[in-house]
Each structure stands twice: as structure tokens, then as C-alpha cells.
Amino acid sequence: MMPAFHHLAVQTADLTNCLAWYRDYFGAEEQWTLDRFSDLTLSRLPGITRLTEVQVGDFRLHLFERTGQDGRLPGGNTAQFQHLCMATGSPQELTRWRDRWVELFDSGAYAFARQDPPTEIVIDEAGVQSFYAYDTNGLEFEFTYLPTGS
Asked: What is the value of pTM for the model shown?
């Protein structure tokens, strides 16, 4: 058996803000929205109010708003998915992703849980180039360029 990746779910306290950022940063397109949920979903995710699926190419995200969050930011030394890595096609594209993040942050149009700027682009001994940045919820993304053969 081999499972296929379907979607990544992102919990947020402000779906409108989160959706706007994913739309403007990634070019995500809304596919559908729910505001009624099964008993199973309500028991697993108390306080869920809305869920919107967005798609970027073949990649899907389920952005869901949930009330009653405790306000702690992701990170620290707890068991969790630590970051999501997105591959780019060239070093120039990697730079454009970083520049776009800075542009959207500096616009003031979005509320960010963390005020941290993206890291600088670093290059390791194999020529792999990467930078890290947070979404509006404080979830970490890595953007990377892998040279041919890496």
C-alpha cells in the first residue's frame, strides 16, 4: 500500500486574514467552504466555525477557523509538524518568493502572529539554497532550491 498526499490543514483564529494571505502569497484559489460539520469533526475540533479548501497547482490546503485557541504560537519544543518545505525551480525563483513575503508583510494588509522577517537565503555545502518564513498564523515554511543531482 502507498498512500497519496491529499491536503495539509491549517488552523487559524482568523480565516479571512489567513485566506487573504494564502491567496496573495501563493496565488491559492478557493475551491469550497463549509460552515456545517459532522459530529466527528466537532468532537475532534471543538469551536470549528468555517473551513475553506484552497489549491495551489496540485497542492491543497484546508484552512479552518476555530474559536477558543489558547494564543500560544507554534514552535518551541513540542511534538508537531515543524515546517513545510516548498521547492522552487531556480535560485531566482527562490529570491522572488522571499521578496514577495517581505512585500506582503510590509504592506500592512495582514495580521501576523509573529513579526519575524524571513531568514536570509543560505547555501549549504551541496549547493542547496533555502530560507525560512512564517505564515500569518506563525507556521513555518522552508523554501528551497535543489541543484540538479541534489
From this structure: 0.90
